[in-house]
Amino acid sequence: MATVKTRPPSARDAKPAPGRVVALQRGLEILACFEPYNRPLSHADLARATHLPKPTLTRLVNTLLGLGFLRLDPSSDQYSLGPRLVTLSSAYVGSFDVRSVARPLMERLAIETGLSVYLAIASDLDMMIIEVCRSHSSMLVTRLDIGSRVPISTSALGRAYLLAADAETRESLLERMAATHGKHWKGIHQKIEDSLRKARKLGYCLSLGELYPDVHSIAKALPTPTGDIVVLNCGGPSTYLTEQRIAKSAGPALLDTVQVLTDAIGKAAR
Fold first, then answer.
1. Domain range holding 170?
2. How many domains does the chain have?
3. 72 and 135 both lie in a single domain
4. Is 131 in the same domain as 21?
5. Dihedral sign, CA of 61, 65, 70, 76?
6. What whole-number distance in Å separates Cα of residue 177 and Cα of residue 127?
């Protein structure tokens, strides 16, 4: 079982920004503890992760339990995320009208390329899948579904988001990723920079076996009328989605689809 990591000292010791409600911030930080592990956590796990005094942590946890944001398994005395969050997350994903516009174009792209096609948005240091389309002929190496998350640092989805984000957002994310990856960051950062440099020439970002050893993927971001950035991705087995296939067919097909989708979203917003 993975050890629950503590937050970096800079985040733990920093004074709350003016105008923020400290209790609310701490409650949300408790919920965020579950994000990297996707498993139940004990009271001790939460204490190690948040560094909150035990009485404070207990009060906040009891409040979150009462509101349905956490639930307690009496047999293991461990906490997991509650049903209230499922309702909120469904409402959040559903608020992206771009999905209804994108789906038929994603289906066409999946059939044309024989690949799995994903639409994603940024969520902290990850990209969260909000729509999925697969052709009947697509060969699954790994299954990602709506709500699945992949790291920004090693995925084509994440790199396309970094390329499209403003400089301040990009630098902030890179700093946080550096703290997360530690001694491995230098190599990861170099691959990110190489990918962004290639993307500026190709028009799309690549991840060739970096997220999953046997999977190649390409991605391109597009802005929405609301100012959000969504990212469209094609992925498949490296034996099928070779670099040659990417250059000759999959890459151009992705770029064409993004252009059509951008135009369609603009029309839908008018």
1. 96-269
2. 2
3. no
4. no
5. positive
6. 13
The separation between CA 130 and the C-alpha centre of its own chain, rounded to angstroms, equals 10
What percent of the chain has pLDDT above 90? 58
Q: What is the mean pLDDT of residues 240-244?
A: 94
- Long-range (24+ apart) CB contacts under 8 A made by 163-167 are 163/196, 163/199, 163/200, 163/205, 163/221, 164/221, 164/222, 164/223, 164/229, 164/231, 165/122, 165/229
Q: Do 68 and 179 fall within a single domain? A: no
Q: Is pLDDT of 130 > 70?
A: yes
- Model confidence at 163: pLDDT above 80: yes
Report yes or no: 152 and 125 within 8 Å, Cβ to Cβ: yes
List, for residues 73-129, the tens digit of each pLDDT value: 988 999 988 888 767 766 665 555 688 889 999 999 999 999 999 999 998 899 999
Q: Which of 8-17, 85-94, 221-230 has the highest mean pLDDT?
A: 221-230
- Please give the structure tokens belonging to residue 207: 């991840």
The whole-angstrom separation of Cα 237 and Cα 178 is 29
CATH number at residue 19: 1.10.10.10
248 and 150 within one domain: yes
Pick from 88, 107, 125: which residue ends a domain? 88
